[in-house]
Amino acid sequence: MARISVPPEPGVEKPLRADARRNREKVMAAARAAFAEHGSEAQMDDVARRAMVGVGTVYRHFPTKEALFVALLEDTFARIAERSRDALEHDDPWEAFAGLMWDAAESLAGDRAFAEAMQADLSMEPCPGQLELAEITAELMTRAQAAGSMRPDAVLDDVPMVMCGIGAANARKHAFSAAWRRHLAIVLDGLRARPDCTPLPD
């Protein structure tokens, strides 16, 4: 997948009119379905057909396919981060962390574009949802390690690599449909603290 670079737009964005906002929401919903199914191969014309708007409307909101793709990634991270806040209220630190991982993996399994993005080299600044998700994940890992339920040498950077593996497992055409579930279960088992666990290599 090609490297994506989307510079921030200068100035403060003006609020959209009601009809423009509705069209943008329709385009986003259609693009989410198109990219989830076809990944980066999805085309703007297909998005316009699904949204039942002219392709010019799509381009008015998103000047390039890459800009639309990045907007979808930001929206996906925001949705996962929003759901993950509940994990902070869970009494069991390990179950809270594992629940977050299963939720994120479910998103990857059903979204080809998101899975591709997790494996691609994207030159985009972390979006607010991504940053919030990282903060929540780090907090859950700290709690689990303090409770003695997660191996002490696990670090936050392990999580994106695990998610890349989930995306790869899901993308393999010859793999059975639940391959990612088996993969994640094995990884989570390896992250559990055990008296005899071998330290992870640096």
Short description:
By secondary structure, the protein is mainly α. It is built from nine helices and no strands. The chain folds into two domains: 19-63, Orthogonal Bundle (Arc Repressor Mutant, subunit A), CATH 1.10.10; 72-191, Tetracycline Repressor, domain 2 (Orthogonal Bundle).
Describe the protein.
With 202 residues, this protein is an all-alpha fold. It contains nine helices and no strands. It has two domains: 19-63, Arc Repressor Mutant, subunit A (Orthogonal Bundle); 72-191, Tetracycline Repressor, domain 2 (Orthogonal Bundle), CATH 1.10.357.10. It is 63% helix and 0% strand.
In CATH, what is the class of the largest domain? Answer: Mainly Alpha
What share of residues are in beta strands? under 5%
User: Overall mean pLDDT score?
Assistant: 82
Structural class of the helix and strand makeup? mainly alpha
Query: Main beta sheet: strand number and arrangement?
Result: none
CATH superfamily label of the largest domain: Tetracycline Repressor, domain 2
* Oligomeric form: single chain
The number of helical elements comes to: 9
Distance from N terminus to C terminus (CA atoms, Å) equals 29 Å
- In CATH terms, what is the fold-level topology of the largest domain? Tetracycline Repressor, domain 2
CATH architecture of the largest domain: Orthogonal Bundle
